[in-house]
Amino acid sequence: MNTNPSATLRTGVLYYGDNLDILRHHIPDESIDLIYLDPPFNSNRSYNVLFRESSGAASDAQLEAFEDTWQWGPSAERAYDEVVTGPHQKVARMLKAMVEGLTRNDVAAYLTMLGIRLIHLHRVLKPTGSIYLHCDPAAGHYLKVLMDAVFDPRNFRNEIVWKYQKYQKHDMTYFARNSDRLLWYAKDASSHYTFKPQFLDLDHPKRYLKRAWDKQTRRIVNVKDDKGHVVYITVDKQKVDDVWNITYLMPAARERLGYPTQKPLALLERIISASSNPGDIVLDPFCGCGTAVHAAHKLGRRWIGIDVTYLAIGLIRRRMRDAFPDIEIEEIGAPVDLAGAHALAAHDKYQFQWWALDRLGAQPVSGKKKGADRGIDGVIPFFAGPAEDYKRAIVSVKGGEHVTVAAVRDLKGVLEREKEPVGILLALASPTKEMVTEAAASGFYESDFWNRKFPRVQIITVEEMLAGKRADIPWGKAPFAKAPTEKERAQQETLL
Q1: With contact defined as beta carbons under 8 Å apart, do 308 and 285 qualify?
Q2: Given CA atoms 92, 94, 98, 103 in this order, what sign does their dihedral have?
Q3: Residues 291/307, Cβ–Cβ less than 8 Å
Q4: Taking a C-beta distance cutoff of 8 angstroms, is the pair 458, 423 a contact?
Q5: Which domain-ending residue is among 268, 298, 332?
Q6: What are the helix (H) ranges across 389-471?
Q7: For the residues 192-205, what does the mean pLDDT come to?
Q8: Rg of the chain over CA atoms, in angstroms?
Q9: 10-32 per-position pLDDT tens digit
Q10: What is the CATH number of the domain that holds 93?
Q11: Would you say residue 54 has pLDDT above 80?
Q12: Does one domain contain both 287 and 353?
């Protein structure tokens, strides 16, 4: 299985990369106390990520970054072969039956790509640990069978129903879908796996008669005190069962960060509180917008997050630093020097683009559809003054080994079309003399409010950006939705 059981475990880490590779080479055997995963389900659609402008309004720009479709291809075929020919033959037989029944389609690819990862998640989980797999009803039946094969049906603990309420269309032709599923398995249910019952405070405490078993009459009778009065018990807490009523994150919720599948913090806090102890290690191999690592840090657990998109890693870093201003986060897998930037650009131009924009402090606006960006890869909103409110610096990213003056002229055309004052050309290659001359000839954006001039077209190389250079523009607010600090959240909960 190409594992590295002697790897040194590091926590407080965000890994950028394929979680299968990270699990194999960075996570030792039986080192994790709790795993939560919410893998993207094959639903033949692309999730659009909406970023909020500095004003708080939703941006018109949408980024097709989180495609939740795994298609059958060479990667799925290799994963299938590895499982079928590997040592985990119980899993191999089950996966083979599902692939043969479904044929080699996208659902089979999803199950195959997840199956090989579940095998490694089983490997890294401690004997006292647990795993929670989050899924919607459309995939739950497939995933339950796959989880039984990997973790053994005897270790199945609960199928938890997360019940919520969200807006529904009036012309629906089916019952409203207001629930998700959580499949909870212990690594070894016969051992002392971690579980602490959870309780809810009742808004209206309930009063019950105290009853007891009378051995003489062999009946349940009322309990009386020494004066003959019937004894009552007041109950102000209720034990949580397998149906969890936790509020769905509505679009206007302050907790919202613009991530389409974001889960409420309360959901992850309940999972982590129930199945881990302070100081334990929590792993989220599909960490998305980072709700699991946020909840883990808040509750005093150590954590590891993995995601295959740099956009997600950047979002989590900002979220954690917003919520915990003094936190130290280590990132592994993202470029830290010019050689790493060249390697990322050669491997995946979109990931390079999102990494470069994140490092520059720009908001991505373009996806993978050719021509969809209309020459705009990112924007940096800035305050232009009371009369003009917010304007945008347009960012164009060039990750090629060669760049010409045409890139500068194209950017000038975008500025004229969009009627924006400043453009930033962020280039991996060094600019030519002709490019520098063309950019200088573009003149300046003169701001009466800021009482100075700003170059209208600016060229910044990746090497300069890594050394700390940033766009020369007026002050502006961060273009991303800002998570409240945990101190602010606690104050708000106290008021409520």
Answers
A1: no
A2: positive
A3: no
A4: yes
A5: 332
A6: 405-418, 433-440, 462-466
A7: 90
A8: 27
A9: 999 999 999 999 999 999 999 99
A10: 3.40.50.150
A11: no
A12: no
Joined tokens for residue 303: 């954590």
Contacts of 108 (CB under 8 A, 6+ apart): 72, 76, 98, 99, 102
Mean pLDDT, rounded, of the chain: 87
Q: What is the DSSP string of 310-357?
A: HHHHHHHHHHHHHHSTT---EEESS--SHHHHHHHHHH-HHHHHHHHH
Q: 300 and 161: one domain? A: yes
Q: How far apart are CA 313 and CA 311, in angstroms?
A: 6
> Which residue range is the domain that position 396 belongs to?
338-466
Neighbours of 413 (CB within 10 A): 12
Q: How far is CA 111 from CA 89, 180, 288, 430, in A?
A: 16, 18, 19, 45
pLDDT at 48 over 50: no
Pairing label, strands 232-239, 199-209: antiparallel
Instruction: Please give the tally of structural domains in the chain.
Output: 3
Q: What is the pLDDT of residue 68?
A: 52
- CA quadruple 118, 120, 122, 125: dihedral, nearest 10: -130
Distances (CA, A) of 244 to 181, 254, 424: 10, 22, 48
Q: What separation in angstroms does the CA of 246 have from each of 61, 98, 118, 160, 179?
A: 31, 33, 27, 12, 10
- What pLDDT score was predicted for residue 374? 79
Do 157 and 145 meet the contact criterion of CB atoms below 8 Å apart? no
Place 368 in a pLDDT band, splitting at 50, 70 and 90: low
pLDDT, residue 184, reads: 98
Which of 332, 347, 371 marks a domain boundary? 332
Q: 221 has which bridge partners?
A: 212
Query: Do 259 and 226 share a structural domain?
Result: no
391: enclosing H helix or E strand: strand 390-398
In this structure, the answer to whether residues 52 and 160 fall within a common structural domain is yes
Question: Once rounded to an integer, what is the mean pLDDT over residues 406-417?
Answer: 96
Q: What amino acid is encoded at 334 in this protein?
A: A
149 half-sphere exposure, CB direction, 13 A CA radius? 25
Summarize pLDDT for 73-95 with one digit per residue, the tens: 898 999 999 999 999 999 999 99
Which pLDDT tens digit goes with each residue over 137-187? Answer: 777 899 999 999 999 999 999 999 999 987 777 778 888 888 999 999 999
167 and 221 share a domain? no
* Nearest-angstrom CA–CA distance, 197 and 273: 9
358-378 in b/e form (b: 16+ CB < 10 A) is: bbbbbbbbbbeeeeebebbbb
Q: What is the pTM of this model?
A: 0.84
Please give the C-alpha separations between residue 192 and each of 183, 186, 275, 340, in angstroms, as whole numbers: 19, 10, 11, 45
For residue 370, the one-letter residue type is K
CATH value at residue 431: 3.40.1350.10
CA distance 303 to 172: 41
Q: Which amino acid is at 359?
A: R
Q: DSSP state, 473?
A: -
Amino acid at 402: H
Instruction: Let me know if residue 8 belongs to a domain.
Output: no
Three-state DSSP class for 366? Answer: coil
